[in-house]
Amino acid sequence: MTPLGFFSVLSRTVLLMAAVNWMALQAEAQLHSGKTRPNVLMILVDDLKPAIGAYGDSTAITPNLNQLTQRGLRFDLAFCNQAVCAPSRFTLMLGSHSTSTGLYGLGSQLREMIPDAVTMPQFFAKEGGYRTESLGKVFHIGHGNQGDPESFAVPHFTEKVIEYLDPASTNGGQLTREEAYFTNQKLGEIRTLPRGAAFESPDVRDDEYADGRVAHETIRRLQLAADRLKEAKAGEESAAPFFIAAGFARPHLPFSVPRRYWDLYDPSLLPMPEYEQLPVNAPAVAGKRGGEINNYAPVPADGFIDEALKRKLIHGYYASVSFVDAQIGLVIRELDRLGLAEDTIIVLWGDHGFHLGDLGIWTKHTNYEQANRIPLVFVAPGVTQPGTSTNQPAESVDVFPTLAELCQLPSPAGPQPIDGVSLVPVLRDPSLRVRNHAFHAYPHRTLGRAIRTERFRLVEWKTPGAASETAEIELYDYQLDPHETRNHADEKPDVVARLRKVLAAYPEAVDRDGRPAIPANQANRLNLGTPTIAEQIISIEAVVAAQNPNGVVVAQGGREQGYSVHFVDGRPTFDVRVGGKVSRVQSGNSVSGTIRLSAELNASQLLLVVNGASAETCSSPGLISMQPKDGLSVGLDELSAAGEYEAPNAFTGKILKVSVSTAAPGARVPESLK
């Protein structure tokens, strides 16, 4: 080809690219050129990892999710910011990492931590005049958490997360552990309740389960929205666009879905875990055994799951995915039938992933790939191109600023920290990159903060505020070792150094009361060391602030020996465990606001004083005879439960002061306890 011919071809190529870009910009302008902004339909799915045909899972039967994904841009490397239900949903709705807010727990209270927070739906109502509605599981409700009613203009449509239709699943209709958790009942008595079934498969209609009812109610809301838009158009007026968040519970346990969805799968063909040991050379803090799965029958108390039960649980997960796929399909078809699709941005988001026996782990609550990788799909008419995908690492916190830009709203500015970035440049051109990694974290005794690039994940485990040399490090190489069989940190020091430098650019994590972490060299100011308590009088002083206090203020020890000062439905409680048996003294009244607590174990009695009032007492079980292995923890019970509750039982307010002191028998009782 001659030079002239080359430049002629180049010129035509440039002109063609310019024309394509101009048409995309014109289409986007048309999306926003009407009297109203585009509608937003957010589809939130609990515990959904990318077990979707469109994501390459050949087992999953998900025709509706496949079609939805085909309409827009699929993010193949999207990650939640914390693999726990409540914190993950806070990150989505706030645009803030949990390490920026302190909202780490299932019972974390948004309005106690950040009273003036502006959530995504609040922002859309204020800045864009949106009518905001929520249905099903949007914010987490349960474990002492009431969600955030302030976020939406229309009262929330509440539905069940834990649901059974077969009486055999609940020992004849008894309240089960997980039902109690998710309905905020008997939170201090969970271990006394029976376990519900991990799965059931009755021959029933879809709408006999919660997700079917959420789908039908979402359809009704869309129909009402279409009617409002038609009426406004007839009167030559502008109708408020809608922002609807529809939350679906499955495939969260229990795997309770109609029989026909189980029948879609041949159990013998289901994928079984390929590697069931924790990674070689991984720090102990990173691993997990048991946990949530142990609250369901017939999982054995020792956590050992045999091959038949593994296959049944995996079967239940995929059946649940297909069930929720069908419900989402109903909603999307109605959106199309009503003629709303061309003016509606759709987001599909899973709150976190799910372990199905890989690494020997079940459910979530880790920093590993299966717990943190999520499906994330944007369908933005005029902006995204059908059937596209990207390897741009994306985070849950990115959804808020992305939707704001798509709807031509100002960039969100808090007052909470905004950690997300807009992905709109990637929606327009999937080959672009707005960052080269994703960030996530998980607290487990210490805090594990992670950086995930296209190839690597680095996890740094250390106490916030502690020196960097105290950290334990994990490094996984998904190009060479996709199943995370070993920690490669010692083998790749250069990669570790590079990624730790990226991580160091993030602010130090705040603690569970939202305050900056106390540097390690100042920790003794709060008496946070682990005291020797064997054969000692134990005295605890604490000051907390909470409107609806629940959870552990301070605990030491575990299932055999220990103590815990905690709240049960607002009632201050002091538990002492000796020889595995718990003795309890509890206030007769619920309290709120700033609360001063004093507690003591001595040889004759347990004492508990609340706000300086007279002491509540009960007979002592005797002094703790042996030093427990589990150390002292503040704000949660990090290992096995020292009290009569399910660990970690994180506190729902702010802890302003904690001290624990010991004395030999016969020492004087502190003034606060007289």
In short:
With 674 residues, the protein is an alpha+beta fold. Strands 1, 2, 3, 8, 11, 14, 15 and 16 form an eight-stranded mixed β-sheet that branches. Helix 2 (63-70) packs across helix 10 and helix 8 (210-234) runs parallel beside helix 10 (307-337).
What would your notes on this structure say?
The chain is α+β, with helices and mostly antiparallel strands. The chain has 14 helices and 30 strands. Strands 1, 2, 3, 8, 11, 14, 15 and 16 form an eight-stranded mixed β-sheet that branches. Strands 28-27-26-21-30 form a five-stranded antiparallel β-sheet, with no helix packed on it. Helix 2 crosses helix 10 (307-337) and helix 8 runs parallel beside helix 10 (307-337). The radius of gyration is 26 Å and the shape is globular.
